[in-house]
Amino acid sequence: MTDVAARVAAGGLLAGPVVVLLSGGRDSVCLLDLAVRLAGPVVALHVNYGLREAAGADEAHCRALCSRLGVPLEVVRAGDPEGNVQAWAREVRYAAAERLEGAIAVGHTATDQAETVLYRLVASPGRRALLGMPARAGRVIRPLLELTRAETTAYCEVRGLPWREDASNAASARGRLREVLALHPAAEANVARTLAQLRDEAAVLDALIDVDADLTTLPPALARLTVQRIAEPAPVAEHIDAILALAARGGTGHVDLPGGLRVTVEYGRARVARREGAVAPSVRLGVPGRVAWGEGEVSCEVGAFAIADGTLDAAALAADLEVRPWRPGDRMRPLGLGGSKSLQDLFTDRKIPREERHRLPVVVSDGDIAWVPGVATGERFRARGDGPRVRLTWCLDSAADERRDRRDPRPGGRPPAQDQGDG
Ligand SMILES: Nc1ncnc2c1ncn2[C@@H]1O[C@H](COP(=O)(O)OP(=O)(O)OP(=O)(O)O)[C@@H](O)[C@H]1O
């Protein structure tokens, strides 16, 4: 076994049935070959977004490769892009993969990880942004996260596996980030080591948080983390300094957050609540996932990893949404089905494995199920024409998931109890 294959095997992620998301690029080509060698059964999924001129050639490449490796390939043709094209593309491929059996493997490498962290460093404040992509988040696995792009390239060359180059990468932000990484020969390894340290430290710090503490008595680092915990899953990072300044001044005051939330500070203690008259729905978490919300078309993601999002009719939604785990007996009227159906049957139709079902957030509006990510949208909540919309994004938070898994090593984490989505 080559060194690369031995290292990936040692990671233990490539075992059992796997759906490989195959773009045709070197990383996912390398991943597919390793999956064939180490896991099984393997199926590949390629999404033809039809956006680049080379899309047809990419698809043909994936078809030829899969037939050479003896891997069944599913090709999905995407419709017209909506909103942020990257987020839309990601949603399309995960939604397609969710319908297939097995772990969903993507080809992110240590190089992608380093690029992601560098990008987040400049694009969004807060330490969560710097924790990087997790090796496992729900059904999604990243078996190549410890390999550099140089290593996946060498692997493909040695194994005689052709790949497709994405010419648009060089000119993109990604291309520029690559130039930054090229400044140091051990860039990816250094970022990976820093990430591992940050995650360990984050776990220690998280254990120190007391949401009832007087913020003015805490060291600044702990005060910031406390505010973050109190406001989660609201996007609070940009507002923490204002909240702490308010606490330091004493007395009472408030800071408004996007999504209709308000952080009130009273004698050093912060609380978060829905702003009176705010139109955006509030959400409470009931599963080990996160839902973020926005007003109108503004979408807002919280957590390390956006897994699915849905756009619903704001006029049909209650001002307060309950987000809870699935309960036996739950029924809904899914879009396009013309009748009511049990969630259990919908899970079976969508091939959602039993152990994953309790992880899915069920979004309930006035007693009616409005949305279950990756499963269904309620008929009456369908976003219409140009009416007001609410966009919900379900994100897994790597840090929270890892903590939870440490507390409860059972597959799938702890059962759906009164979890309020810790951070
Ligand atoms: N069109 C697609 N169809 C299926 N999966 C895809 C597609 N595009 C990307 N992916 C998956 O998402 C991962 C990350 O996407 P990204 O855009 O970083 O990859 P890429 O540069 O196009 O290709 P690669 O990572 O394979 O070299 C890929 O490794 C692959 O697993």
From TrEMBL:
Record-linked SMART domains: TilS_C
Protein name: tRNA(Ile)-lysidine synthase
Chain sites annotated for binding ATP: 23-28
PANTHER family cross-referenced by the UniProt entry: TRNA(ILE)-LYSIDINE SYNTHASE-RELATED
Native source organism of the sequence: Solirubrobacter deserti
Keyword Transmembrane helix attached: no
Summary of the function given for this chain in its UniProt record: Ligates lysine onto the cytidine present at position 34 of the AUA codon-specific tRNA(Ile) that contains the anticodon CAU, in an ATP-dependent manner. Cytidine is converted to lysidine, thus changing the amino acid specificity of the tRNA from methionine to isoleucine.
Subcellular localization(s) per the UniProt record: Cytoplasm
Listed EC numbers: 6.3.4.19
Gene Ontology terms, MF aspect: tRNA(Ile)-lysidine synthase activity
Record Pfam families: ATP_bind_3 (PF01171), TilS_C (PF11734)
Keywords associated with the record: ATP-binding, Cytoplasm, Ligase, Nucleotide-binding, tRNA processing
Gene: tilS
Sequence ranges assigned to domain Lysidine-tRNA(Ile) synthetase C-terminal in this UniProt record: 321-394
Domain notes per entry: The N-terminal region contains the highly conserved SGGXDS motif, predicted to be a P-loop motif involved in ATP binding.
Region (Disordered): 398-423
